[in-house]
Write a structure and sequence with these properties.
Blueprint (H helix, E strand, L loop, with lengths): L1 E6 L12 H8 L4 E6 L12 E3 L7 E3 L1 H12 L6 E11 L2 H7 L4 E6 L7 H6 L3 E4 L9 H12 L32 E2 L2 E2 L9 H19 L9
Parallel strand pairs: 1-2, 1-6, 5-6, 5-7
Antiparallel strand pairs: 3-4, 8-9
């Protein structure tokens, strides 16, 4: 799989894409993530990528030309399944969307900045818009890192135990059950006896009950999907 991220502030993505699961997946050759500086196609001696907003609104807007040229350059080299714009207007990122995108071969993540991007980019170049929440950030770099992480961890081989992702929260529209590790007792706080029983059937039943109970208590909106 290949993910190309387009941004005017590539430095913001250095750390999130270089460490932990994503970093290891890149080193293993399971995924390629390439960060491109849109200023490569900026205009004039200062590589300008933004300009004032038509209509007199406050804030600067990313121009069409640099983004268009960057995307055209990439498309000349390969076909892309999606050109995704990170936007608070987009569909809210979910585990289902992450699952879907993890099956793609090549995707572009476009990061807006300043006031946003010229709407013609969204009309003619973008195939999908994704949001990570109903709030506004300084740019799309952090959301792009979130999307990339949510995708990469699902690629076979990215996790040491591939079955781990199957029990994550939201995979079955339920929150995950509580998890514990050694020691079995600390400061008088004990691990539930069932998890120490060695009985897979009882453990599975307990986990299912806990997942349902936690979802009912913390995220009841999720239950309306299947219950």
């Amino acid at each position: 799989m290949r993910i190309d991220i387009l941004t005017v502030v590539p430095e913001l993505l250095d750390s999130p894409l270089s460490h932990s699961i994503v970093g290891r997946a890149i080193k293993k050759g399971l995924v390629e993530i390439h960060v491109h500086n849109i200023r490569k196609y900026g205009l004039g001696p200062h590589r300008q990528v933004d300009d004032y907003c038509y209509g007199g609104d406050a804030g600067m807007v990313m121009m069409v030309e640099p983004v268009f040229k960057m995307i055209e350059e990439l498309k000349a080299e390969r076909n892309y399944d999606e050109v995704i714009y990170m936007s608070p207007d987009g569909e809210l990122l979910s585990q289902g969307i992450a699952n879907e995108l993890s099956l793609k071969e090549n995707i572009i993540l476009l990061c807006g900045h300043y006031k946003g991007i010229d709407h013609r980019i969204r009309e003619h170049l973008v195939t999908r818009e994704i949001s990570i929440g109903d709030y506004v950030l300084s740019g799309g770099e952090i959301p792009a890192a979130v999307v990339a992480d949510s995708i990469v961890r699902l690629i076979p081989g990215a996790l040491t135990d591939e079955t781990s992702a199957l029990s994550d929260s939201f995979q079955d529209d339920l929150l995950s059950p509580p998890v514990y590790t050694r020691p079995a007792e600390y400061n008088g706080w004990k691990v539930p006896d069932v998890l120490l029983s060695g009985n897979p059937k009882l453990i599975r039943e307990w986990q299912e009950e806990q997942a349902l109970e936690r979802t009912r208590e913390l995220r009841p909106n999720l239950l309306s999907k299947n219950f």
